[in-house]
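Appendix B, Record 12. Input sequence as logged:
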Amino acid sequence: MPGRSLSELTTESISSELAGLHSRSIGELVDVMNREDEKVARAVGREVDAIEVVITQVSQRLANGGRLFYLGAGTSGRLGVLDASECVPTFSTPHELIQGHIAGGDHALRNSIEAAEDSILSGAELIVSLGVTEKDSVVGITASGQTPYVIGAIDAAKRLGAYTAGLTCNKRSQLGENTHDVIEVDVGPEVVAGSTRLKAGTATKMVLNMISTISMIRLGKIYQNLMIDVKVTNEKLWERAENILIYLSNCSRADAKSALIVANKEVRTALIMLLTGVAAETAREQLARDQLNLDRTLNTLQKVGK
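Logged structural output:
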């Protein structure tokens, strides 16, 4: 399926209802943008079935030792890098488990390198250099649904046997033709025509949040609705870790702090210590046997202690 002209893309369409922005007051413009943004969640809601399909495939591969790669250009690439980067402190994932890559490399995160998105070969070469295999998932992100860099990466990933999915804001996209599954969130015309850092960017972030967060929940990285694997690297996160332990075990702040110190700042291990009375090493060993299933570990150790 050849790429369509820009005039055919919803993300490039010009809304007559939004004309005259240059002559409106700041208050009017705030109201316009807020009303347009309200449409984004509804548009994402229309794609929940497709989102579920993608998350099911991604989470299964992560559970079986695979990795997740986000590939995009411009705003799409930056959002992919952002979502992947935040998984490390939130879920204590290895840096290589969920990766975001942008056309033009890391320099493009702070600098506009628009021409980088035009190279099919660059996308394909990146996939090869990353050592992508059939165990991995590759999600291509492009508001237009036809960015050459992303298409090249997806095609290369498919040839290597990886699972491929697309995230775009245009229906009937080329990306959808090339991937195993696609999420096409039609947010309608942008407030500033063609500026896909706006509604398309918001929709993209919402979907990426779902993909990474729900995949991590399925991997046991969240207990109840808490960051049981939060990486404790500063004072704020130390206090958050203490609060998690206090909430889940009803212990004192002093006991939470002591358990964290003994557990080498591993919240999951500290919680097991507080709830079962076992040593940190015993907690870790049982967790390993239970493949980090916290409910199973707590149940086993509490039975042993009776």
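The chain has a mean pLDDT of 94.
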